[in-house]
Structures are given as structure tokens and as C-alpha cells.
Specification:
- This protein is an alpha/beta fold and about 375 residues long.
- It folds into 2 domains: about 250 residues, Zn peptidases (Aminopeptidase, 3-Layer(aba) Sandwich); about 110 residues, Alpha-Beta Plaits (2-Layer Sandwich), CATH 3.30.70.360.
- The chain has 9 helices and 16 strands.
- The strands form 4 sheets. An 8-stranded mixed β-sheet has the order 1-2-4-3-5-16-6-15. Strands 10-12-8-13 form a 4-stranded antiparallel β-sheet, covered by helices on one side.
- α3 links the parallel β3 and β4.
- α1 packs antiparallel against α3, α3 crosses α9 and α5 runs antiparallel to α6.
- The two termini are about 20 Å apart.
- The model has no long low-confidence stretch (mean pLDDT about 95).
- The structure holds nickel (II) ion.
- The site of nickel (II) ion has 4 residues, from loops.
Length: about 375
């Protein structure tokens, strides 16, 4: 039997290491090597997938049952850390500011505990250490393989600095939004700033498009469906007295319902193209689809709640977010559930002073284990 004190010590030390040496999306080579080293030290089987970064551990139960998957994302962010932690990032400009270091370690702890409880485990658990969540598309690396082929359920979790340690946020239904990106290129005709009548001003057209795009949420989408559109970048021109020939803008659309996602894509294209046309310009819209919305299966959410209560966690309603998670790609195939683990109230995720209370590591590992044991 694993000594819990010893395991907790190891998990904390591993957490400090991962926090000190963060790696960005698709570059998680040392992170992957460290995960492998720890799993091997506990004699946990690693599946022979040829992933560039990330890996999959498997725990085979001694009883018949389903194949479950636990997703732990492993990448960090290009942020200069501003904490006073003794284990703050030693890699300038990179930081585990989304708690994925905690996800790795809780996943490792869970693998160790499941391995030890194989007699009670029905079926198989794949613990997937997934790369590049912050790119929104890392899950696709897993989906390119057959890792998920026989998986029946997928579980995910996220560090939550809006809640104290010991609090679990759970909600059935939608919890994160679908993430789409658009790029609009407005083609006008450049000319002298003093002779706008000689050209077609793409900046004026862009301004009209930005305004009109905001009418989608208020005039076209069902008022009971959460959604938003943000234009986040506009680029045009090089100086003060020349009207440029072109303007480029981009932004993001966030939706929960599939029908709204389709609607936005159609309306963004229509508004951009036709507004530009009305001004004598041309707009070309590029639509880049990201992950769909994350949707928590009711039965799975109920189990998460039951286990949390049995273990003495406080259960609160998980806040839904217009942020996204590529976890949703897995849920396009099979039922899933994604819970929020309170990591101590503090700075939000992606903030340079975000920090996870290390006291949550072992309890989170135990909680995930209980869920997977069913
Ligand atoms: Ni995250």
C-alpha cells in the first residue's frame, strides 16, 4: 500500500518541478519525459502511442467494465510569472498560469491510486496527458490516433481560482462555449488622404462592419441562448495622409448551441460581404472553427456530485463560461463530464499571479479516483 503521506510529498515535489519548468503547446517534451519517469517509477503501463508530446497511461481493472478516459492537459502559457512562490517559473516568459501543472499531478496521483485499487476497478482507465490545450486544438492530436476508439466515457477537470480548496463546481449541460475565429479582409482602393473620392476607404467599411456584427447577438440569436462576438484586432494603413487599400480584422465568436454557431457563421459572412459591397468594397471572410461547447452528461455529473459529497467536499454550481476547452472535441464522440476543482480563491487563470494551493493535489487525485471507480 502506498503511504499517503509519502504520495502527497511526491505529488507536491512533482508539482513544484512542473511549475518551475513550464512548456508551451506542442513543445511539452521535458514535461512528457517527467510524466513518463514518474509513471514508470510506480510501474504503471504506458501505451505505445507515437505522440510527439503527451502520453497515455493505462490501468486495467480486475473486473469487467467500461473503458473510461481521464483527460489531463499539460501545457503552459507565454506569460511572465509574477508570483513570490519559491517554485515560480524558471523559464522566463513561460508560466503554468492555467493550472495545467496541477492537472498533470492530480492525474499522476489518480493513476497511482487506481493502479493500487485494480481489484476494485471495473474495466479500464486511460489517463491521457494531452498536449496543447491552450492552442484549442491539442485534443485533435489524440483524436488522430485510435486512443479513443474503444472509450465509453471521458472525464475532465480544471483548476478553479474562484473557489476555495475543498470546493467542487459541477453543472449538467453546457459549461464552456464553442470557440470560433474569423478573419475579415476588406479590399478597397487606396488613395491620398485628402482625396477620399479617388478611392474606396476600407477603414470606414471596417468600422461599419464592426458595428453591424454586434446586431447578430441582439437581433438574430434567441435571447435565452448565451453567445457573443468580439472583434479583437483591426489592422490597416501605414501613415496619416494615405488611405490604405486594405484592412484586416479578426475576432472570436462564442456560442453554446450548435444552431447559433451555424447562424453566426452565416451572418458574419453575409454582413461583412454585403456591407462592403454597399460601400463599393469587397470583404473576404475566413471562418476558423475551434472546439464545440463542452456539455456535461447528467448521469456523469450526478456521479461527480455524489462522490464529492461522500468525500466531504463542498459542492457548488459550476459557473458556465464563454471560454472554451478542446475537451469538447472528445464529447463529440462520447458522453463526458468536466468539473471545476477549487484551488484557493485568488487571481484568475491566465493571470501572471495565478497560483494553485498545493494542498489540493492529493484530495483531487483521490476524488478523481473515486469517480473512476464508480
Ligand atoms: Ni486551462
Amino acid at each position: 500500500m502506498t503511504d499517503m503521506k509519502q504520495l502527497e510529498e511526491r505529488l507536491k515535489n512533482a508539482f513544484y518541478w512542473f511549475h518551475e519548468y513550464p512548456e508551451l503547446s506542442y513543445e511539452e517534451y521535458n514535461t512528457t519525459a517527467k510524466i513518463r519517469e514518474i509513471l514508470e517509477s510506480y510501474h504503471i503501463e504506458i501505451l505505445p502511442y507515437d505522440l510527439e508530446t503527451g502520453l497515455v497511461a493505462v490501468i486495467r481493472g480486475e473486473q469487467d467494465g467500461p473503458v473510461q478516459m481521464l483527460r489531463c492537459d499539460i501545457d503552459a502559457l507565454p506569460i511572465v510569472e509574477q508570483t513570490a512562490l519559491s517554485y515560480r517559473s524558471k523559464t522566463e516568459g513561460k508560466m503554468h498560469a492555467c493550472g495545467h501543472d496541477m492537472h498533470i499531478v492530480a492525474g499522476l496521483g489518480c493513476a497511482v491510486l487506481l493502479q493500487e485499487n485494480r481489484d476494485k476497478l471495473r474495466g479500464t482507465v486511460k489517463v491521457v496527458f494531452q498536449p496543447a490545450e491552450e492552442s484549442s486544438l491539442g485534443a485533435l492530436k489524440i483524436l488522430e490516433t485510435d486512443i479513443m476508439e474503444n472509450v465509453d466515457f471521458v472525464w475532465g477537470f480544471h483548476a478553479d481560482p474562484t473557489n476555495a480548496a475543498g470546493v467542487i463546481g459541477i453543472r449538467e449541460g453546457y459549461v464552456t462555449a464553442a470557440v470560433d475565429r474569423f478573419v475579415i479582409t476588406v479590399k478597397g482602393i487606396g488613395c491620398h488622404g485628402a482625396h477620399p473620392d479617388d478611392g474606396i476607404d476600407p477603414i470606414l467599411v471596417s468600422a461599419a462592419i464592426v458595428q453591424a456584427l454586434q446586431s447578430i447577438v441582439s437581433r438574430n440569436v434567441n435571447a435565452f441562448h448565451p453567445s457573443l462576438l468580439s472583434v479583437t484586432r483591426i489592422c490597416a494603413g501605414t501613415t496619416w495622409n494615405v488611405i490604405p487599400p486594405e484592412a484586416v480584422m479578426e475576432g472570436t465568436v462564442r456560442t453554446m448551441e450548435r444552431e447559433d454557431r451555424v447562424l453566426y457563421e452565416k451572418k458574419v459572412k453575409e454582413i461583412a460581404e454585403k456591407t462592403a459591397q454597399a460601400y463599393g468594397a469587397e470583404a473576404v471572410v475566413q471562418w476558423i472553427a475551434g472546439p464545440p461547447a463542452t456539455y456535461n452528461d447528467k448521469k456523469m455529473a450526478d456521479l461527480c456530485e455524489q462522490k464529492a459529497k461522500e468525500m466531504g467536499f463542498e459542492v457548488v454550481l459550476e459557473e458556465s463560461s464563454m471560454g472554451g476547452d478542446d475537451f469538447a472535441f472528445y464529447e463529440e464522440k462520447i458522453p463526458g463530464c468536466y468539473v471545476k476543482v477549487g484551488t484557493g480563491v485568488g487571481h484568475p487563470i491566465h493571470h501572471p499571479a495565478f497560483a494553485v494551493n498545493p494542498e489540493v493535489l492529493l484530495p483531487t487525485a483521490k476524488y478523481l479516483t473515486e469517480i473512476l471507480l464508480g
